[in-house]
Amino acid sequence: MKLSKELQEKINTLREVTFEMYPDAETELEFENPFQLLVAIIMSAQTTDKQVNKVNQTFFQVLKTPEDGIQMGVEKIKSHINTISFFNNKANNIYKTCLKLRDEHKSLPPRTIEELTTLHGVGIKTAKVFLAIIEDAPYLWVDTHVHRVLNRVGIVKAKEPLQTNAQAEKVFTEDDLAKLHHTLIFFGRYHCIARKPKCESCKVQWVCDYYKKMKKN
User: Fold this and answer.
1) Residue 5 annotated as catalytic
2) What is the pTM for the complete model shown?
């Protein structure tokens, strides 16, 4: 896809600034193996990573393999995760995913989007996040933070994250997608925040549509 000079400038600037600000950015979800990561991502929907990590400090002491989840059963899983949002649905999904992993995948999470999305509680977004973390696959985790950043800067124009994801995959290179996965989340989570973003100290401001609009008002 041929990009305009302005759009390429926005992408280059955002890449350089976020890499400089967060050179060691990686997921804040805590896990010991790929199975635990998959469970943590399932749990993280509409819940902060901080809360998921807090719960998993004890939950992951007893949940290390799909067999552990099967032995626990749904009700015991619920008792471990009942402080996170939608814990009833998530507990059911975790249990059913444990069964499917044991019965169909030798207790190991698959490594393709097609196979991952057959698991309970795993949509395309969850699958892409998992692969981006485990294999540095060229996928963005377009959460509310990344959605906000890309639309504010003017790299995409979308009303919701799925649209942002589709547009981003067209304008970013695969190399950028893989590397920007975590830096954009950090940039949106800690710098380009929803309320009172740190625009005055931001090195992206000179290419940012949001900043230019605010300066006019």
Assistant:
1) no
2) 0.85
Cβ(150)–Cβ(156) below 8 Å: yes
Is residue 96 annotated as a catalytic residue, yes or no? no
Per annotation, catalytic residue among 10, 128, 143, 179 = 143
The model's pLDDT over 157-205, given as tens digits with 9 standing for 90+, comes to: 999 988 999 999 999 998 888 888 889 999 999 999 999 999 999 999 9
Contact 10, 153 (CB under 8 A): yes
Task: Domain 34-135: state its class.
Answer: mainly alpha
Q: Can you tell me the distance from the alpha carbon of 35 to that of 190, in angstroms, rounded to the nearest whole number?
A: 28
Question: Which residues of the chain does CATH 1.10.1670.10 include?
Answer: 5-25+139-216
Locate CATH 1.10.340.30 in the chain. 34-135
Catalytic site residue from 10, 125, 128, 179: 125
Q: Tell whether domain 5-25+139-216 is in CATH 3.65.10.10.
A: no
